[in-house]
Amino acid sequence: MMNQYLPQVKEQREADHAIDPIFLNRWSPRSYKSDAVPDEVLFSLFEAARWAPSASNEQPWRFVFARTQEDKERFYPFIADGNRVWCEKAPVLVLVISKTIGSRGTHNRAHAFDAGTAWGYLALEATRQGLVTHAMGGFDPEKAREVLGIPEGYEPQAVIAVGYQGEKEALNEALQEREKPSTRRALSETVFEGVFTAK
């Protein structure tokens, strides 16, 4: 278990209340090594996601992953150019999909919320395993649907790059400037007792 802050995280992030370092150590780098992720490590991420909570235990999340060059090249056309410039070096790409219809045949209002929770579990296990992840909203869901044969009733949510962190210097200059853990707004701006106050 990772029980200390990573050096780059320690410089950028500080928790106001005591939490496990894994929550701050998880961030979204763009520089990846080409090293393959072993099966036992990769599938531990999906195993962690499997145990995420979901409304009525519907487990609406689905994952399509690509790690061969052939499969990754199938992903590239639906990923935005601004993301492709760095994510093509990642050894694994994952598309998160949510099933929109529940077991009773009605719309599952929580499908995206629950799929997001599963992604969070996956990301934390990746951090624990010494991997980095970066979720991307910059992709064409309809193109992904077409390329990967995703039927109606399932909604593409995000593409995730997975792998081992590379050197910042491997990125172009503009991305190098962004290659650091982001901060977060204060709890007082996001947590409200009793009633909500927009800020």
Plain-language structure description:
There is one protein chain. With 199 residues, this protein is α+β, with helices and mostly antiparallel strands. The chain has a single domain (28-180), classed as NADH Oxidase (3-Layer(aba) Sandwich), CATH 3.40.109.10. It is built from eight helices and four strands, in the order H-H-H-E-H-H-E-H-E-H-E-H. The chain has helices at 7-12, 22-25, 39-50, 69-75, 81-87, 111-128, 141-148, 173-178, and strands at 61-66, 92-99, 132-136, 154-163. The chain has a four-stranded antiparallel sheet with strand order 1-2-4-3, sandwiched between helices. Helix 3 packs antiparallel against helix 6. The protein starts with 6 loop residues before the first helix and ends in a 21-residue tail after the last helix. The model has no long low-confidence stretch (mean pLDDT 96).
